[in-house]
Amino acid sequence: MQPLLINTFTTTTALGRGLTDTLSALRAQRSGLQARSWETVDLPTCLGEVDGLDAINLRADMQAFDCRNNRLAQLALEQDGFMQSVQTAAEHYGRQRIGVFLGSSTSGILSSEQAYRQRDPVSGALPASHSYRHTHNMFSVADFVRHYADLQGPACVVSTACSSSAKVFGIAQRMIGCGLIDAAVVGGVDSLCLTTVYGFNSLQLISNRPCMPFDAQRDGISIGEGAAFILLERADQAQTDDLLLSGVGESSDAHHMSSPHPEGRGARLAMQAALDMAGLQPQTIGYINLHGTATPSNDAVEDLGVTAVFGTNTPCSSTKGHTGHTLGAAGSVEAVICALALRHDFLPGGVGTRTPDPRLHCNYLLTNQEQAITHALSNSFGFGGSNCSLLFSRKRA
Amino acid sequence: MTALQVFVDGIGLYAPGLDGWTHARAVLAAPQTYRATPLQLPSIDSLPAAERRRLGVAVKLAMAVAYDAAQASSADLQHLGTVFASSAGDCDNCHQILESLASPDRAISPTRFHNSVHNAAAGYWSIATGSQRPSTSLSAQDAGFGAALLEAASQIHSNAQSCLLVVFDTPYPEPLHTLRSVTHAFGVALLLTPVRSASTLCGLTISLTQTPIHPMPIPELEAMRGNVPAARALPLLSALATTQPQTLVIEYLQGLNLSITLQA
């Protein structure tokens, strides 16, 4: 593929607002996970909550879209000069030449969850103030961002569970590649809701302490929320130190709705496809940001896939101990973490992990490493057997 | 203006009064013969009975149109990539979860939860066919058919492989039905290929346009087109029913439509 520029990006998670907070939390190996009460949740669990969302006011002309998910989207769009960069790109390319492709797993469903608690006792009707279209519908966040930034090109939401906002890079890459657009705002936004907290709890996949990816004692995920946005542009004249999307690999497990293939078959296919698209050998990859959810089976299967493709030397870590599992936003949040690793010559050690599982064989980092790398891979795997691996690179002189 | 060419090798269609492509083709070629009859779906024999029992109408509809489109040609299902789109996925399942979460015990069944992912239909399809090829699942509210067609065409343009496009919508039960009035179930699938073959029905050249859309010629079908996101495909399906060379415009996003030129 023709690499695409990814110099412009931002993320907001439980680690903080924007890149400075995110980078300092990664450098300090600080976790944003806390045992805390949220909404009406009555389960003992740790969450990666973004502070202050209840106090965010949507821009005056965007009030119809008001919900937790779109507040998080607006908060993230306004960090790191991202909106200004998008407006510069819109003036350069034209508003119809910029796509908006975002990933989410639950969109603004929290608004419908709350509305169902306020149904009219006689008619069963939902409160008149509930706007399904602008909040709960899966497309809501892309509709919001497209209007917020006044972009007029193609748009959609990818919703493939926890691979959602990795796969949006593929959509943008294909549409730019065939000339439909010149640039795209890609990313992911997923916010806390009862559906995922009680749903993952029903599958007994939630830990009651901060999650411990790849640890011998790991016992489930911690749910987080987050948003990340990346501006993808043609890289016809890439300069030294530019950051690039260099490969996208996608596959399906064809195995089970909520359990990964036991040999990591789909994961392996996705990683290999990303390498093939980039034309890179496994040994050139300097860091792998694992999907690393911290459930016993997911980490074991990912380890099989990683070691089958890369062997046991490539430095790896999961950053879900920092942010929690941000579900549909995870692919883009972790893409931004890979971009920070490439830009700052820095590999983040995982947090939450004390004793790496001796049955797992990848080179799992427990401490940060200051190291210049040229290529980083990010894995995202979701329910329904949906897999996506992304390859990012820094152009060296 | 960039235009993407693909070829149509198979079509699946189920909606009230449109009972599979063979029947629907005759109706759409003579739209005054349309009669609104209840949705009839064939049984999906390729899934184990235990899996079949867990599936709601939305996933059964998606599977039914997908099989019809794929089996119309000699496509190898195990090596076929897919693009699924739906405004809201399995709306009955979503309603059940919302009711459970509003109840005192908040107990959701694990099956209901994993069926709540927007890519549930795509997941069941890949399990049933054994296909490990990439699959994506989109939502674009009312623009789902246009978004999926654009994605399928750009995939084919990028990788020169066939792609199965599946777009489906079903109504929400109340109380959400009042807020999101999708009136009918509607499922459509197209098997799209990069090159013309013996099974090819016609070619399509697709581009973005701001030209106004083509409506349907009778009120019942125009109401279906306007009230069901997946039915935004109806003007294209009408053209495919006759395969007469023509250019038509279908609805995509606000201010941005898709122009499609059909070559016999």
Automatic annotation (TrEMBL), chain A:
MF annotations from Gene Ontology: 3-oxoacyl-[acyl-carrier-protein] synthase activity
Occurrences of domain Ketosynthase family 3 (KS3) (ranges): 1-394
Keywords associated with the record: Transferase
Domain of life: Bacteria
A GO term from the CC aspect: cytosol
UniProt KW GTP-binding keyword: no
GO term, biological process aspect, one: fatty acid biosynthetic process
A Pfam entry, by short name: Ketoacyl-synt_C
Family: Belongs to the thiolase-like superfamily. Beta-ketoacyl-ACP synthases family.
Protein name: Beta-ketoacyl synthase
Organism, as annotated: Albidiferax ferrireducens (strain ATCC BAA-621 / DSM 15236 / T118)
From TrEMBL, chain B:
Full protein name: Beta-ketoacyl synthase-like N-terminal domain-containing protein
Signal peptide: none
SUPFAM superfamilies the record matches: Thiolase-like
Pfam families found in the cross-reference section: Ketoacyl-synt_2
Originating species: Albidiferax ferrireducens (strain ATCC BAA-621 / DSM 15236 / T118) (Rhodoferax ferrireducens)
Gene Ontology MF terms: acyltransferase activity
InterPro entries for this protein: Ketoacyl_synth_N, Thiolase-like
Top-rank taxon: Bacteria
Domain Beta-ketoacyl synthase-like N-terminal: 36-198
